[in-house]
Each structure stands twice: as C-alpha cells, then as structure tokens.
Input
Amino acid sequence: MSYKHIEVKPTSSFTGAEISGVNLSGHLSDEAIAEIRQALLQWKVVFFRNQNIDHAAQIAFTARFGEVTYAHPHEDEPIGGFPEILPIDRSRYEKRNGLRRASYENRWHTDVTAVVNPPAGSILRAVDVPSIGGDTTWTNLVAAYEGLSAPLRTLADTLKAEHRFNARLQLPSNSKLAQRIAANPQVSIHPVVRVHPETGERALFVNPGFTSHILDVSPQESELLLELFFNQITKPAYTTRFRWNNGDIAFWDNRATSHLAPQDLDRIEVERVLYRTTITGDVPIGPDGFRSQPVEGEWFGKELPTVLKDGTKLIAEPVLA
Output
C-alpha cells in the first residue's frame, strides 16, 4: 500500500510495522486514522516510537478506532478517574495477587478470549521499562492458519473450542487472582478459525492462555490438536519481537494476533510499567457460520447488554463441552 499521511516500515515479513510521521498527542486527521487502520489490518500490530502521551490522550486515541472498554473483567482497582486504563505493572501485579507475574500471564495469549466478544484491538503504552529485558512478541494468526496444510485447514474450519480464564495453568486456589476469577467466571465457545470481520481473512483463533479444550473430540484428540495448533501459531517465522523504550506504543489487532509477555524478568529486579486500553470487539464467526456462544459471563465493553443488536441472547443456556 501507499500512504500519504504516515510512514510505515515493516519489522518482519509477516508481522509488525513501525509507524512514523504522526504525533499522537495532537489531533490526527480522519485520513491519518484511516491509514493507521489499514496498516494495522495488513501488519496485525503497529508500533509508534517516542510518543509521550498521558492516560487521557491514550483513551482519546483508542476511541478513534472504536468504543473503549473498561479496564478488564477482573480489574477491581482501576486507576482513579480512568476506568478504561489497565496497568501492566509487575510490582502491582505481584502485590495484588501474591504471585510472580510469570506464573500466570507470561504465556502466549489473545486478550480476554474467555468472553464472548474478545477485544477488537489493544493499545499498550510504555511509561517505565527496563534498559534490558522486557520485550514483547506478537504472532500473526492469519499467517499461522494459511501455513497449515489444506486438509488441516479444512478440519480446523469445522472445530469449536472452549476458552476460559486459568484454562491450562492452575493457579493456587487461595491466590487473590484465582478468587477473583471464581467470583466472576468467564467462559465462551469460539470457532477454532474465525473470519476477520474487516478483511475476510481466516485466523487460527486458539491460544495457550485461554483455550481449554476442543469440543466434540476425545480429551486425547483435543490435546494433540491443540498442541499442533499452538506449535503452529508460535512458529518464529510468523512473529515479531518489540524492544520497548519509554514513550513507545504498540497497537495490535486482537482478532488476528496472539502475543507473549516478557520471559526474562524473573531473574532481574527491575520495574516495568505500561498501560493498556482495549476496544470493544464483535462476536467471532467461523467459516461455517458458527457464532461464538457465552457459557458464563457477560459482554465485555463499555456497557453490559444482555441481548445483542440482532436479538441474540447474550446470557445463553450453558453449552455442553
């Protein structure tokens, strides 16, 4: 593509691009926003360097791309005055949950797929990051799907999977995080392959952070299939790794990516503080027309409707897994 209002430099052949020529602290034209959206759709995650903006400006920028959600289904201590902001703060996490952060969130995941409408996109702003370590990696779920053989793509197109918090890594039951999850369970059934609502591309929509099992197959078959799909989405060829500096911003399409939090911080004592906003997403639809179904929990957005616009009941009868 050619761009008139931004400059786009890919960071790998499949995934990621740095965008320059814009100042996110000022007002961006509709044309610039449209070009950022097009770059995002093409590269799945885009990066902005040296953008020293505050909470309000981050929320305002996020809102140019859709409705901004509240911070997180399990965030009960939002930043004062900014309920849309989720702190990604190593010290805060460990203090609030009594856990080393690596024990839960440092796994490949697509954000909040336990809900029936996972966020459409996420924006993460670095405020205090270490001089070494702390990189984040993203992978392209469209490329992962397209990299499967034709028979496996055909099979994946027909499958459904359950997603839930704490799906594959059992937290100590007495931990504060486990207690918040138990008090507000979120479980949904998603197609293993989702059709992107804007591009029409097919993405392999499973991740080790939230996908518990595949429906309508034996437990052994489920584990073998998930192992195959997890290996596929985490192939280095489909990834890009981002080295953070203070003031940097990452914006990813949550419908077409998974990402991996830093793997190297437990051995060094450093602070790492970033802030995330998310955009309300739609309900995923598979190639066969299957629409994701809620098992437990509610819509994730600014408000909590009980019925979708098309009349579909949001709090449905439990789906037998």
